[in-house]
Amino acid sequence: MKVIEVLKGREYSLSEIIEYYYKIIENRVAIEDIDKINGNLVYGIQIDKILIEKSGEQTIESEKVEIISCNLELVREICKVLHKNLVSPIHLVDVLEDNISKLFKLDSKVRFVENAL
Questions:
Q1: How far apart are CA 17 and CA 31, in angstroms?
Q2: Cβ(76)–Cβ(24) under 8 Å?
């Protein structure tokens, strides 16, 4: 796994600061296609949340979805929306699941093909 981009967000209250890091991650996956194996790059998102209390104590939460799409631009757009809305790590999977059909409509290159052979 390789981090290729990071967006940072921050929230403040009287007793704490919350920092969010929205990371686009890149992975290589092997896809078996009949008698050969092809390596493809896929992109995902990791969100790290760091809660910094007034006392200086820090609590870290993290969640990632390693495979969202082969389309980097689509994953960038998703990451921007998550960043804009300060989505926490605990909600990452739910937000993606709730919006998966919208995500595929945005990605015009994604097609499901029946009986491709």
A1: 43
A2: yes
Q: In angstroms, rounded to a whole number, what is the distance separating the alpha carbons of residues 103 and 69? A: 10
For the stretch 6-35, pLDDT in tens is 999 999 999 999 999 999 999 988 766 655
Residue with tokens 């390789």: 2
CB contact at 8 A, 18 and 49: yes
pTM for the model: 0.79
Give the alpha-carbon dihedral of 1, 63, 75, 91, to 10 degrees. Answer: 170
Domain extents for the chain? 2-106
Residue with token string 């937000």: 95
Q: Please give the full DSSP string across the chain, using - where no structure is assigned.
A: -EEEEEEEEEEE-SSEEEEEEEEEEEEEEEEEETTEEEEEEEEEEEEEEEEEETTS-EEEEEEEEEEEES-HHHHHHHHHHHHHTT--GGGHHHHHHHTHHHHHHH-TT----SS--
